[in-house]
Amino acid sequence: MAVKGANTYRNPSYLESSVGIFMFFCSWGIWWSFFSRWLTDPTKGLGMTSAQQGEIYSINSLVTLILMFVYGVIQDSLVIKRRLVIVISCIAALVGPFAQFIYAPMLKAGGSMKFLGALLGSVVLSAGFMAGCSLVEALTERCSRFFNFKYGQSRAWGSFGYAIVALIAGRLFNINMMYNFWLGSLFGFGMLCVYAFWRPAEQVEEMKKDADPNAPHSNPSVKEMVSVLGMGSLWAMVVFIFFTNTFYTVFDQQMFPNYYVSLFSSKAAGNDWYSNLNAIQVFCESAMMGIVPVIMDHIGVRNSLLLGGVVMCLRIGLCGIFHDPVMISVVKMFHAIEVPLFSLPTFRYFTLHYNTKLSATLYMVGYHVASSLGQTVMSTPLGLYHDKMGDRVTFLTISAIVLAAVIYGLFVIKKDDQQVGGDPFIRVKDRKKAEAEGQAIQAEAASDELPA
């Protein structure tokens, strides 16, 4: 049973996991939130077209796709050991000098040097951040099950960190984007310190148990890991993620920042307002990370996931209908509901229907790898489509595709009581019903024992 209330904040593993994920999202968010603007802005950035930007995202996503499968398999074998996360922390700590002295000069050089820079950047940024995100989340989720705290509460600190840095990211970008990357290094160093040196006693004890050759091991066998690829129901879920989360990512990373900034009289003002809006949205997202588990308790995992898809469809579609910065800002706030409604039920879906020992591999293959595959395939075509058709038509097209995916999900996403291969999920009303039936049986048994 998860630790609740004030006890959670005295749980050393919760504190360590929360600070670690907070530092990671600060290190990532400070530059990632304006990465698209940096690639496309002709004065403050590199001045790429949407199609050229799409090529960068496609290459990044392809490398991320490969790395996330590798990360999932390695972390499942490590269980809760942090060796891989420490490697990621080292990369995050070096993002500033890499961007300043290697990545930016190579992208500016053009020709074959630009392609090599994009390729090298995809390896470094994917290893440290895009693939690293799913690994940090998977490790946090596993620790939540091992050491009795709610994953959503810990993950909320990641969103909170992203929100804090989003407040200043736009202002730094208006000065020099390299400041964003260097501040990312500073937070990456903080992340490294957390994962390298903060060792709660209960985690040390659990690692000792796992190291005991006579103890039952919690890490999966190679056969179990390979068996993931043969799960038909998993691939059905992958298709759903491919046609939903892919388009959420392409829309939010490649299209929305430039579209929103274009609604203002000057790009500098647009950057500032986008920074403020992004921060407010992620602050609300952080709060929703704690509320969505309650929603999930009442409506179930499957329904929560489908609801997240509906919110995504509405948010992207409404951006194609409204063209006023105030209304677009209101629509952007749907994002705060959408992300927790999509990410938390997805994780719970995998731990509900499949072996929990494979949770890292399943989450990365079924969620992040599917999304990265979609970005690899769709980033460049959607960039070209956007260049040709403009914002309105592109956004409405994406919204229609997401709606079709939600309809598909109605038929392929398993109900909470089907194929339960992991931790069962029981909704509040079902728990209350079972408790009432149990009490009725006890009362009936007690009345039978009374003398006539």
Give a written overview of the molecule:
- The chain has 452 residues and is an all-alpha fold.
- It is built from 18 helices and no strands.
- The chain has helices spanning 12-32, 35-40, 50-78, 83-93, 95-109, 111-146, 151-175, 177-197, 201-211, 222-227, 232-242, 245-261, 267-299, 301-319, 325-332, 334-353, 359-412, 428-449.
- The relative contact order is 0.14.
- Residues 1-6 have low confidence and may be disordered.
The gist of it:
With 452 residues, the chain is mainly alpha-helical. It has 18 helices and no strands. It is globular.
What is the overall number of helices?
18
Uncertain spans: 1-6
* Overall 3D shape: globular
Instruction: Kindly name the structural category.
Output: mainly alpha
Mean pLDDT score, rounded?
A: 85
Task: Count the beta strands.
Answer: 0
Tell me roughly what share of residues is in helical segments. Answer: over 70%
Q: Please indicate the percent range of residues in DSSP E strands (runs of 2 or more).
A: under 5%
